[in-house]
Amino acid sequence: MYIDADVIRESIIGGFEPPTVPMTDGFLQQIELQREIVIGWAERMASAGYVPVLDDAPIPGPVDFARQYRAFWEHPGTARVMLRPDADEVRRRIVARAGPFDDFLVGVVDMALEGIDQLDLAGWSVVDSTGQLPEETAEVVFDLVQ
Fold first, then answer.
1. 54 pairs with which residues across the strands?
2. Is 130:85 a contact under the CB 8 Å cutoff?
3. Tell me: the pLDDT tens digits for 98-114?
4. Is residue 115 pLDDT above 90, yes or no?
């Protein structure tokens, strides 16, 4: 079960705060709510026997990202895999997906990757997926979590 955290927040209709720099308080509150929903959804899927795969980035920064996900990461049986392609690859993927906030996302790639580099990734598998097709990355991840 693939869960794209951005899709959760972007589904807000009334009161949606678009991503901007500097980030507004409303945007930051929506990021926190987005992660609460993602975690609840992932926990429910896991309890039903599915394997949830979360797609999120440490925006606004690694401290909030780690705080918001820490309890989830500590669940027994959770495999923590961080995909860490290089910045040019991330920008290429963002542009290729043609999402509604690509200009913002392309502009914060370096910040997000620096945030990943600041995370304590002890107990994580880090995969450089630069140049890999999604199927190739999935195979590497599958091999890591078996």
1. 3
2. yes
3. 888 889 999 999 999 99
4. yes
Residue 140 corresponds to which tokens in the numbers above? 């590497």
Tokens of 106: 């392309």
| 46 Cβ contact list (under 8 Å, min separation 6) | 52, 75, 77
* Among 70, 52, 59, CA closest to 113: 59
Q: pLDDT tens digit string along 35-82?
A: 999 999 999 999 999 888 999 999 888 999 999 999 999 888 888 999
**Tokens linked to 111:** 């910040």
DSSP characters over the chain = -EEEHHHHHHT--TT-----SSPPHHHHHHHHHHHHHHHHHHHHHHHTT---EEE----S-HHHHHHHHHHHHTSTT---EEE---HHHHHHHHHHHT-TTHHHHHHTHHHHHHHHHHS--TT-EEE--TT--HHHHHHHHHHHH-
Q: In the predicted model, is pLDDT for residue 3 greater than 90?
A: yes
Give the pLDDT confidence score for residue 77 in this predicted structure: 80
Tokens standing for 134? 């999604």
